[in-house]
Amino acid sequence: MTAEVRAKSKLYLFYLDVVRPVLKSGRGVFGLATVVTMVLMATVGPSLIPLDTEIKPSMRWCLPSLEHPLGCDYMGRDLLSMVVHGSREVFLIPFIATLIGILSGMSIGLLAGYVGGKARRALTAVTDIWLTIPSFPVIFILAYVLPKSPLTIALLLSLFSWPGLARALAAEVSSLKARDFVEACINLRLGKMYILFREIGPHLVPFVAYNFAAVFVGNMTSLIGIVLLGVAPLNPTNWGYLLNQMIFTYRGLLIPNGSIIIFVLVSVFVVIKLGVVFFAQALEEVFNPRLRVYE
Amino acid sequence: MSPVASVRGVSKVYTKGVFRKRAIKALQTVSLDVPEKGLISLVGESGSGKTTLGKILVGLVMPSSGELSWLGTTVVKGGRITRRDFYLANRHRFVYVHQDPYSSLNPSKNVRSILEPVVRKYKKHLGEADRLRYIKELLEEVGLVPAEYFIDKYPHHLSGGMRQRLSLARALIVDPHLIVADEVVSMVDPSIRVSLINLLRSVVESRGTSVIFVSHDLGAAVYAAGDNPMYVMFKGLVLEFGPASEIVYRPEHPYTRALISNVPVPLALAERRVRGLDGVAEPSGEGAAAASPCPFASMCPLLDEECSSLNLGEYVRVGPNHYSLCVKAGRLPKWRPGWLSTTPGVT
Amino acid sequence: MSSKLGAGVGPEIKLMLRNLRMEYLVREGTIKAVNDVTLPVEEGRITAIVGESGSGKTSLIETFLKLLPKNARIRGGEAILRLSRGGEVDLVRADESTMRRLRGRVIGYVPQGAQNSLNPVLTVEQHFVETLKNHGLWDSKSSMEEVRSVLSTVRLDPDTVLKKYPFELSGGMKQRVVIALTMVLKPELVILDEPTSALDVFSQRVLLNILDSISKRYRNTMVLITHDIPIVAELADRVAVLYAGTVVEVGDTYEVFKEPLHPYTAMLIASIPSVADIYLKRVPRPVPGEPPSLLNPPPGCKFHPRCPYATEHCRTSELPLVEPRKGRLVKCWIYSRGGRE
Question: How far is A2 from chain C (nearest CA, A)?
Fold first, then answer.
């Protein structure tokens, strides 16, 4: 083999290892764009796009146009501004809920998976029971009953975010532990913590990332759902609240333009969900070099 | 020179099923010494117990019975660890290298990050710059040159042979007393197997590490051992052992003879004539075969009543350092390998 | 000294591969897995295709059997199969329906690890019935006799084996069942990919005998893909050596082993350790270096980086396949004008 010594700066390696795999597929680009948009929307969005509070009856249910890219709501207010301002709550609460859920799920799952034996069997039994509880109705009822603050909602959502991951992660860790290269590290006595986090860990990241995305998306849907059904009125720019008003109070579905605007709002939500999932899929290639091309 | 590792009468039984009904005897009874600074070969088919024996010698598998000693100290006896402190202190210097170069390395780590944690643990006195230098020298030692080229490569960039060299490099960091190389060349291209075996031999020479070369490939095992001991295993027993070169010339067990005769040889025959199965009898049924504890009895062309008197563990000395488990050892009929008479240019 | 290859397909050639090229499209470029393969396969003989990893041997078979994955592209060449009933077909240009008619009844294929492809819920007998029925060859009166006959050719006792399920058979026995299933259709051309790889020495020896019996009994043409040099020496009549996607040497096995013409062939044979070494006072010598990447193969002769006889010419020019003596084909500049002995 010809001797080729290539000096690679860390930045170039980062580009090759992380950025390029994500950008190589259509899904990756779409996913990345979505996530970037979401972050921008929630952080600088509200400062850039002022909330339209002006009631303009003549502009009620106006269709999407250059001036109002998402159209107008039942009061003639620009829908885009409402979406942007509501995004903070719609993203943040599920994010925190997912974070709590994933972190607790991870700790339990990792430990149970690595230790194995009775611990793992106990965990599986508990999570199996938990998973059979229908989450949405329970969240719905508890949200109605409990004090209506963003934090309680987040905690409530996190209750159902951890079991799925814990169980699956325990199984994944268990199977990874049996792989030859892990066995080799165990034989070299490299230490439980090292093996768990530095050898097994990287293989779990796509797994956890995907799970995070799925749970996040699920929590977003639950949140919008309970707000839509009028159980937990939070911020009036919350998309669920917008939908609630549009559908129930202002009978938007009976008005032709109304249906379109409702559809537009729901589509925004669906596109975001898709983008998040695609992004997680693209991340899998970053963490698993073998999925990458023959170099 | 005391052996670096030795076993006396070890056996291994695996039980299956909830009520422990089905028992698989991976190893019946084996006694073996691994010489210091030596390379020995363990040859046998799958199911012969060679992998189990290799794993027992490095402490990865607990024998069901028998004794294991390291550096002269008994560490395992009667299925339990006897000198726990000694065992824990030395365990990491008895290393097992896998056969599969595709699964024994973490695919998401590059060469440097595969080796570095091990260097960090076992060469604590080295600072960062020295660590890097150590890693480069190690890569050179195992033939992965130029080191700078390989240092940031991932396993999937490397060929099977290169991966095995890397696995070996990782094993060498701990300055091992003993390396069990289990089928390390089986999944590697034939044309470079010999270079890997040569690497193992040079490691024995330069570092004084002992190596056990485990393989089902008789040619490779004989080449690896040379004049050093080779152990021929079958169904959980060592049937013959002695200097490899001697065993090939004068095998004193019917199984070894059958093995040598039936292994395909890369010589052109005068006409294309495929040899029949030589030295292996058709399984005849019960009777004499069932009466003998010899594992080869049902296939042995020399089976008779004498074979029922075999005592497992009692070897017949047929030469200096050369022993056979056959009751007829030393009295076997004259023999030549089946391919010898047809090979041109060989006396 | 060198002569051009006969333009037509001679009477003893069953399958003629000529200038076959195939590549896989991957993101980093193209993998030139089959890079100008020319190989005449003689009728009624056992031809072995020898190659190590990265030689492209499985890709070659998949190319002319048209079993390629979606990202493969055949870039040129022909694979002319002479049919025993008369006529020829170019497998490269054949469409899928033609291939389907050929597969099984005309071309038999035993892929690697075939013993795992037996259906676990069918008995051996049911396998045979299904296979014969699928090819329209099932005759309730005479077929069972044929099946029994094939089973005994592979040294399996029909009465013992027919009623068994695959899990009741050992690996070696399953292998033989698969071979019998292939042979019961009496194909003219049989391709076997690494048939002996997972077998112990005794089973391997029996299988070699079986393959020899099959060749003699059915008088078909067999192509054996393997990386196991000793097997080739014992079983094959003709051998073709594959390196980096191209055939570098073809010839009668005995002659090739006695006097290999291509440096790779010589070094490959010399690198295999064998129990016979002690008797021959032979020391095996490994081939230096690594096989080349098929993504970015070296220019000129693909072997030149590892070849002790390489010259500047070898580095730059693409080589022709020449016939320095009857029946021997080599791709090496030593044997053509411009090369050096």
Answer: 9
CB-based contact B149 A181, cutoff 8 Å: no
Question: What pLDDT digit, counting tens, does each position of A21-67 carry?
Answer: 677 778 888 888 898 888 888 888 888 888 877 787 777 888 888 87
CA distance C243 to C260: 15
CB contact under 8 A, A288 and B107: yes
Q: Which of C204, C269, C288 sits opposite B266 (nearest CB)?
A: C269
Tokens describing residue A36: 């970037």
Residues on chain C touching A24 (C-beta within 8 angstroms) = 27
Alpha-carbon span A247 to A241, nearest angstrom: 10
Tell me the residues of chain B between 96 and 125 that have a Cβ less than 8 Å away from chain A.
96, 98, 100, 103-109, 117-118, 121
Q: Rounded distance, CA A108 to CA A162, Å?
A: 9
**Which burial class, exposed, middle or buried, applies to B287 when counting CB atoms under 10 A from its CB (0-12, 13-18, 19+)?**
exposed
Report pLDDT for A122.
85
Place of tokens 């532990």: A177
List the structure tokens of C82: 């002479």
**Judging by DSSP bridges, how do beta strands B316-319 and B322-324 pair with one another?**
antiparallel
Confidence of residue B171 (pLDDT cuts 50, 70, 90): very high
Read off the pLDDT of residues C64-91 as tens digits, 9 standing for 90 and up.
899 998 889 999 999 999 998 888 999 9
Residue C264 forms beta bridges with which residues?
none
CB contact under 8 A, A203 and B108: yes
pLDDT in tens, B276-334: 788 888 766 566 667 788 999 888 888 888 888 888 888 999 999 999 999 999 899 99
Q: Residue C281 contacts by C-beta under 8 Å, 6 or more apart in sequence? A: none
Residues whose CB falls within 8 Å of the CB of residue C86, separated by 6 or more in sequence, listed in order: none
